[in-house]
Design goal:
The chain is α/β, with parallel strands linked by helices. 44% of the residues lie in helices and 11% in strands. The longest helix has 23 residues. Adenosine-5'-triphosphate binds next to helix 7, helix 13 and helix 15. The site of adenosine-5'-triphosphate has 21 residues, from helix 7, helix 13 and helix 15. InterPro entries: AAA+_ATPase, AAA_lid_NorR, CheY-like_superfamily, Homeodomain-like_sf, HTH_Fis, P-loop_NTPase, PEP-CTERM_resp_reg, Sig_transdc_resp-reg_receiver.
Length: 485
Amino acid sequence: MPAATPAAPSILIVDDEAGLRTQIKWALAPWPTLMAEDRLSALDLFERERPPIVILDLGLPPDRGDAGEGLATLRQILARQPLTRVIIASGNQDRANARRAIGLGACDYCSKPVDADTLRVIVERAWNVYRLEAELNAAGPEPEAPDGLVAAAPAMRRAVDLARRVAPAPVSVLLTGESGTGKDVLAKAIHRWSPRAAGPFVAINCAAIPETLLESELFGHEKGAFTGASGRQIGKVEQADGGTLFLDEIGDMPAPLQAKLLRFLQERQIERIGGRRPVAVDVRVIAATNRDLATLMGEGGFRQDLFYRLSEIEIALPPLRDRPEDIPALALHLLRKHRAIAAGAPRAFAETALARMQAYPWPGNVRELENRVRRGLTMGRGAIGPADLGLAPAEEEEGDRPAEVATVDGAPAEPLPTLRAAQEKVERELISRTLALTGGNIQQAARRLGISRPTLYAKMRALGIPRDEQATAGSPAPSEKEEQA
Ligand SMILES: Nc1ncnc2c1ncn2[C@@H]1O[C@H](COP(=O)(O)OP(=O)(O)OP(=O)(O)O)[C@@H](O)[C@H]1O
């Protein structure tokens, strides 16, 4: 046990029996201690002193035989400061409640009467883990770049610098990179950094809209232009007038529309379907793709002249696995972004979780990281552990808590996953297996799954499933029947 120094943390002892409080205080000497006898005085002291370690008896008044008051104290302390290491001190007969407390985020357990040596070891370990986690969560690379765009890794910084430099110029930009690498966020940032920032930013995902609807979505139509055109519709290109048009998944644009888009880029005017006169439109175009356009052009799937029009400047976003320096910074940024997801959601990562995130290959890139952080916020109690992120090895998954936390009798605490987390897991597995079966063919996979192609795309994006290289972009649009499925 280190000698107490001015930096030594206070330890809050919450027990309604004065004798036991004193016993613990002497066991921990010379560390400074604070004493509370019930929930309210404990929370009051916690608020004022913010002790990093709390030793908590679960049987607090008014009903000492019931753990309700102790568990409520635990919850309220962790809601105020999730990094707090709460050690449960409880009678032998109360193991079940101690287990519940661990499930709620307590870090350890010691039985009463307290053995001084054991308690000192537990407290020392709690203090070490606390310091490590506090350091990891407070320091590190500047977690949030201005504009909500994290770029700590050199490769990512280069991409963002280039984007900043080209933003003011009236040139078209092509953003390339795997699905979920941040093309969409970067496109928005370029718009904000450009002289068009006060104008609209209008995005259209060329892969998510059935081919039959894409033309009118892009260029609009006049009333009566085709069956069902009950009124005039202004297309995305026109909506972006004075601002930026973001053409996402441009590699999936069908050939006839590629020709029409090229014409627009040359003439800077469009014609609505069924329209009689051209309309001049002033937009800056940013396009993005996760497909290899060079290969596509070689196969005749993408027009070379259009490619040159769209890619006056090309910015390649590296996959997350190639920029490990971004992982902790992004994880913290995303934690802050989604913290409101659940009341009392964790506000920090366990050290083991950060290590596991660094080692994981991130096939779904930042989108997958974001989904996992959201899952961690829903599942986690106290600091988010690897299992909360779905990144624990199979044998640890069961416990659903970081190893250093689930320690009661060696028995894992098992908070159940939320229904949504369970659904997402099943959907992710099923979609991945179906895509593997169909060799990445989106249309076939959608048919097998009984959903439309756009729905499948939307689900893949939401679940962070990367789009397989072999996916057939030129696959014909789904029939109306499929769309309704
Ligand atoms: N550098 C970053 N900083 C902060 N958030 C990021 C960053 N990169 C990605 N994200 C977040 O990750 C998610 C996925 O990013 P985004 O939609 O931009 O990826 P994408 O490359 O456009 O994907 P797709 O090719 O599937 O359209 C978004 O919620 C985005 O806010």
